[in-house]
Specification:
- By secondary structure, the chain is of the alpha+beta class.
- It has helices at 3-12, 52-62, 87-97, 116-119, and strands at 24-30, 35-39, 70-77, 101-105, 111-115.
- A five-stranded mixed beta sheet has the order 2-1-3-4-5.
- It is globular.
- The structure holds tetrahydrodeoxyuridine.
- Tetrahydrodeoxyuridine binds next to helix 2.
Length: 130
């Protein structure tokens, strides 16, 4: 199996999803081949929940990865219809990853690939800040 998909599936096991029971894993492949993963982490104050994708991006950036130095991202949830990233995560992926492939997968080996640009057309970004 593609190690990036395997990392997203494995990260899902670490999800702290006691309120929704909806467990998500994400994995980012850096330009140097390193893989950084994340899971969703919920809180009793529901609005503080953070998605798996943002955990992975923020972990990577915090550990010194350079913005736009990512090759691919994979996202895994246990759904028949593959789970795409939420709107907030699309914005974060656009800012830090640019138009890289986004591979969705589930626990049954189904996959579907998009690019970040397909998922967030006409994105707001720093090119508009002047
Ligand atoms: N969630 C993610 O981690 N990633 C997504 O792309 C969609 C939603 C999480 C947030 C929350 O913990 C749970 O899934 C239900 O929304």
């Amino acid at each position: 199996m593609d190690p990036l998909l395997a990392a997203a599936i494995a990260a899902r096991d670490h999800a702290h999803a006691k309120y929704s029971n909806f467990r998500v894993g994400a994995a980012l492949e850096l330009e140097n081949g390193q893989i950084v993963s994340g899971c969703n982490i919920e809180n009793a104050s529901y609005g503080l929940t953070i998605c798996a994708e943002r955990v992975a991006v923020f972990k990577a950036i915090s550990d010194g990865a350079k913005p736009r130095a990512f090759r691919r991202v994979a996202i895994c949830a246990d759904t028949e219809t593959l789970t795409p990233p939420c709107g907030a995560c699309r914005q974060i992926l656009w800012e830090f990853c640019g138009d890289i492939p986004v591979i969705l997968t589930n626990l049954h080996g189904l996959t579907r690939e998009f690019t970040v640009g397909q998922l967030i057309p006409e994105a707001f970004d720093d090119s508009l800040l002047g």
